[in-house]
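Backbone shape codes
____________________
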Amino acid sequence: MQKLIFTVLFFLGAQGAFAQNGVIRCGTVEYEAWLREQGLKSETDAQFEAWLSQKIAEARLNQRTENEVYTIPVVFHVLFRSGNASENISAAQIQSQLDVLNEDFGRYNPDTNNTPLAFRPVAANTGIQFCMAQRTPSGLPSTGINRIEYPAGTTFSQSFINNTVKPATIWNPSDYLNIWIAPLSGGLLGYAQFPTGSGLPGLSGGTNANTDGVVILHTSVGRPPQNPFSGIYNGGRTATHEVGHYLGLRHIWGDGGCGVDDFCNDTPESDAANYNCPTTHVSCSTLDMVQNYMDYTQDNCMNIYTADQTTRMRTVMQNSPRRASLRTSLGCIPPTLRPSAGFFSSADSICTGGSMSFSDTSSNQPTAWRWLFPGGTPDTAVVQSPTGIVYANSGNYNVTLIVTNASGSDTLVRTNAVRVVSAGLPAQLNNLAPVCVGDTLIELLDGLPRGGTYSGPGVVGGRFFNPQIAGAGQHLITYTPAGCSSSDTAFLTVNALPTVNFSLPDTLCVSAAAVTLSATPAGGSFSGLGVNGGQFNPAGQSAGNVSVIYTYTSPAGCTVRDTEMVVLRPRPTVNFSGAESRCINEGNIQLTASPAGGVFSGPGVSASGSMNLQQAGVGNHAVTYTFTDGNGCINSGTRNVVVSAPPTINFGTVPTFCVGGNSVVLSFATPSGGTFSGPGMQFGVFNPSLAGAGTHKLYYTAGLTGCTTLDSVTVTVLPRPEARIERIADSLRSATVATAYQWYKDGIAIAGATSRVYQPLENGLYGLTIDSSGCNSVLSPVENFFFTSVDLVRNQQIVVFPNPSDNGIFRLSRGGDAPLNLELLDAQGRKLKQLEWNGTQYELDLQEMASGIYLIRLHDGENVGQVRLIKK
């Protein structure tokens, strides 16, 4: 199959996560975009694909084959909130997820027979497997599960997990596949981090190591019965999908339409993601491979990876950073710990001259053993489990075991571990409890002193009894203690299994009523899918073979089970759902559904599907279509027929608009939800500047399609006022009389300066905006305003700071240092002080003076200037 390969992959866009019914199947595409936005990944999709295609080509050119099974250590980080036990999922649920991964990647998943015949030739065992991490990064023993508790109100958003959780909890991603399990927010099922290339110049490659791994919603981990959550995504295939991304696979449709590549020639082109399980869906002129793990179908629909997908993943495992190193990780190998000694003996008592055997039960894998048997022959041994240790004399004897490995040794001394009694001690066999024919192998433990051998019908290995070999009846069992001359006998009763009779109909429809169950003899219990007490209810079950079990226990305590298989026929597929909008003026309409031949019902509806809209009336009407197939199986569909009347349009208070005002969504018409059109309307928004000053007629259309009303309204757009500043004495004034004013200094609004006239308090560039009847002007041309311009001898310029002054201290500076005479005057020009200024700096202290305006007159004998001072 030939596919078009784009130089640039559009790995983002409207086809990103494909939310359906509030569920986002996969967020990997969006996550990759986030990594690039954050500067954590500079490698583009095109660069990665160029690198990967080269690696694949090199392997084929060198005719290199890789038969090695790659085993990846996995650590599951379980994130849960305090007080929410369901989020802290069980180890059994996690183990079931690991089983699903191994089955799916090894192509021994139990649903391989659901792969269509057309796709089976390309189905492949990837040669990739997974194990629970057996050791932590620091070398301590591990179960592969890391549980982390968070406060009850925590929200597990993608940003929180990426920025906070991952860096704080990740195990070395070069040695482990990190899978975070969390109650994700936003309906997201999972996402993964894509691998990076190797040796590409200018790429950051490994800078995003602290976020590498897979994230899964806790309810989508594993499969039933270990996964207790319901739904179509509870079969563990979310992890299979996301680990595929982690190992370099694209979505099956290439995250685009027809002609966009997923870089696997054995996966048919598709125009988009598939949901549910549309097994006959055709797009891009080929049958979609909806069973592929990299589509968006439900879990029980997925069952295949292809040969080309396998080549991609194995090439990534051989070459990509933080993937190739997983092949040599020690994560699957338990750490070696110092051994802990333990053993058990074949008997607790023997007669003189008898022998005993000892079995090692030490933990942590010892590699050497040393036994000490005081009183026994031989009295030492260095094998793991010694046998035939003979004790010639009566008494109680200790046994010592010393075990050793590379990490150290441990010693266990068991006092009086061996009891040796006189050979003349009589043997004793107590009454043996009755058993049933169907029971499993039973260990005989009733003979005294313990440790001897048993014989008789059904006895195997000298100490086990097999009821199935012995058969029903009473059987004489003989017990002989080790090394003793005496023996004893007892009868062991084997009870026969009861005979039960139980039957069910061979076939039922999933739409059939509940069936009452009965069996003989009575008194047993029924179990299986759809069983509730003494009834089997097909409703709610999936079509196919269903087993119902009858379990009965006889008065003798023997239990037998009878299983009956019933074939549940599916409901017929009925296509009649959704919503349909109609206008009451249409009169009679004809409803259609498939397959044909069913019965319609509902307001104003005849059995044949004719609907009188006048009779039904305005409103929402549920119409049902019921169909019965040739097997008597029934199904129905319901459609909501919305009957509307043309609406009456009312215009409320119509606002006045201004040129230059903000664009607004018009909302003064009822019913709401209609559409305005006319001057100034653009993309559903009214732009007063686009309409221009004056009066304009706008049209409003409301109602449902085919049932609408059109009306018009006149709106007024006022012109924008012009703001200009005129100067009067030592103040500024708006040249235009307006409703409101706002003065600005150096482009910043002056708090409280909202009158027509403003008296500046300091030098600067002053501007003005005005409001006239709700219309705002633009900022006026600025007015340069300076209190003083002092030109003295040598063109010295006087600078005063601060001015105004809060505390009455003014600092004067100038460019020269010639002597200057200063006169301090009040606002009326009265002389208050005579001062002299020598040097370039001068501090004028008016702290004792009242708040107000003062003048400093400066003269050097030839020139005079003055500075206005303001004390607050």
In short: Residues 650-718 form one domain. The CA atoms of residues 362 and 843 lie 93 Å apart. The first strand starts at residue 70 and ends at 81.
